[in-house]
C-alpha cells in the first residue's frame, strides 16, 4: 500500500459509510473469536471481549448522535475521549498480561469495594437491602476472578489503581510504565496523546475556550457553513473508527490472527484522509500487522 498516493481526500470528504460495513464485520469476527477463546477459560479474552464490545457500542452512539444532529458533536467527542482510554489500557495489558491483566482486575475490584462501603455508610436502609447483598456477593465473585489474596482483601489500600493514560505515559511514584512498552508502542501512545487525547479531545471534554469555540457554530447559528457542519459530523466518527481500528489491531497482533490484510485496508482508507491517523498507522501497525 502506498500512502503517498495523490488521491485528494480530507476529513470533510471522508465517506464514513464506506468503512462502516467492513469495520463492523471485523468487530463481529473479533468478538466471535474472543468469545470462543473465553469459553476455554481464557480470562484475557473475556476482558478484551467486554472492552471491544464497549468500544463498538460507543462507536454506534457517536454515529447516531452526530448523524441525528451536528449540534451533538461535542457530546460525541467526549464519548471518544472516554473510549480512547481503552487503547492505552489494552496496549499496557497486552505488553505483559500476566502482570497488567490482574492489576486491571484488582483495581476494578478495589474501586467497586470502595463504592460498596460508601453506599453502606450513607444509607442504613440501603445497607440492609437485597441490592446491597447482591453487590456483596458480586464482590466476592469478582475477588476470585481477580485472584485477590486474603491480605489484599483485608488491606484494600495496598491494591494499586490501574494507571490512567497520563500515568501510563509519565509514570507514578510507584512505577514508570513506559519502561514495559516497546519503543514503537511508546511513540504511538505519545502521538495519540498529543494529537487527540490531551489535544482536541481534552479541550472539548474540559470545556476550555478553544473547546467551546469548536462547538460554537452549530449552537449559535442554524446557518453556519456546511464545511463546519460536516466537520462536526465527520471528526467524531473518524476518531471513533480509529479507536476501534487500534483495538482490533492490538488484539489481532497479540493473538496472531489472520485478518491483517483486512485491517490494513481499513487503516489505508482512513490514513489517506487524515494525516494524523496516517502517522499513527505508520508508527506501529504498518510494520506489525
Q: Would you give an account of this structure?
A:
With 289 residues, this protein is mostly helical. It has one domain (16-96, 165-288). 77% of the residues lie in helices and 0% in strands. It has helices at residues 16-38, 43-68, 73-95, 97-122, 124-127, 130-146, 150-154, 165-170, 183-205, 209-220, 226-255, 260-273, 275-288. α3 (73-95) packs antiparallel against α9 and α9 (183-205) crosses α10 (209-220). 33% of the residues are buried. Residues 1-10 have low confidence and may be disordered.
Structural class: mainly alpha
Total helices: the number is 13
Strand content: under 5%
Order of helices and strands: HHHHHHHHHHHHH
**Number of domains as seen in the coordinates:** 1
> pLDDT average, as an integer?
89
Specify Rg, calculated over alpha carbons.
Answer: 21 Å
The number of strands is: 0
Principal-axis shape: globular
Helix content: over 70%
Largest sheet: none
C-alpha termini separation: 13 Å
Amino acid at each position: 500500500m502506498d500512502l503517498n498516493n495523490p488521491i485528494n481526500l480530507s476529513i470533510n470528504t471522508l465517506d464514513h459509510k464506506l468503512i462502516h460495513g467492513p469495520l463492523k464485520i471485523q468487530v463481529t469476527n473479533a468478538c466471535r473469536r474472543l468469545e470462543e477463546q473465553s469459553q476455554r477459560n481464557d480470562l484475557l479474552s473475556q476482558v478484551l471481549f467486554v472492552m471491544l464490545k464497549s468500544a463498538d457500542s460507543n462507536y454506534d452512539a457517536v454515529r447516531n448522535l452526530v448523524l441525528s444532529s451536528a449540534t451533538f458533536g461535542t457530546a460525541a467527542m467526549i464519548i471518544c475521549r472516554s473510549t480512547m482510554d481503552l487503547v492505552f489500557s489494552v496496549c499496557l495489558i497486552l505488553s505483559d498480561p500476566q502482570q497488567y491483566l490482574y492489576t486491571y482486575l484488582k483495581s476494578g475490584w478495589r474501586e467497586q469495594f470502595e463504592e460498596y462501603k460508601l453506599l453502606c455508610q450513607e444509607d442504613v436502609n440501603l445497607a440492609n437491602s437485597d441490592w446491597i447483598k447482591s453487590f456483596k456477593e458480586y464482590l466476592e465473585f469478582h475477588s476470585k476472578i481477580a485472584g485477590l489474596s486474603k491480605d489484599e482483601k483485608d488491606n484494600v489500600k495496598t491494591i494499586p489503581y490501574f494507571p490512567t493514560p497520563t500515568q501510563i505515559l509519565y509514570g507514578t511514584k510507584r512505577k514508570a510504565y513506559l519502561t514495559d512498552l516497546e519503543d514503537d508502542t511508546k511513540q504511538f501512545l505519545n502521538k495519540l496523546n498529543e494529537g487527540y487525547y490531551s489535544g482536541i479531545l481534552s479541550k472539548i471534554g474540559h470545556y476550555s475556550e478553544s473547546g467551546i469555540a469548536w462547538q460554537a457554530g452549530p449552537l449559535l447559528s442554524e446557518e453556519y457553513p456546511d464545511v463546519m457542519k460536516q466537520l462536526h459530523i465527520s471528526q467524531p466518527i473518524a476518531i471513533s473508527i480509529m479507536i476501534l481500528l487500534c483495538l482490533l489491531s492490538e488484539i489481532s497482533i497479540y493473538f496472531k490472527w489472520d485478518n491483517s490484510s483486512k485491517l490494513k485496508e481499513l487503516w489505508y482508507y482512513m490514513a489517506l484522509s487524515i494525516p494524523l491517523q496516517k502517522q499513527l498507522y505508520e508508527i506501529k501497525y504498518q510494520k506489525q500487522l
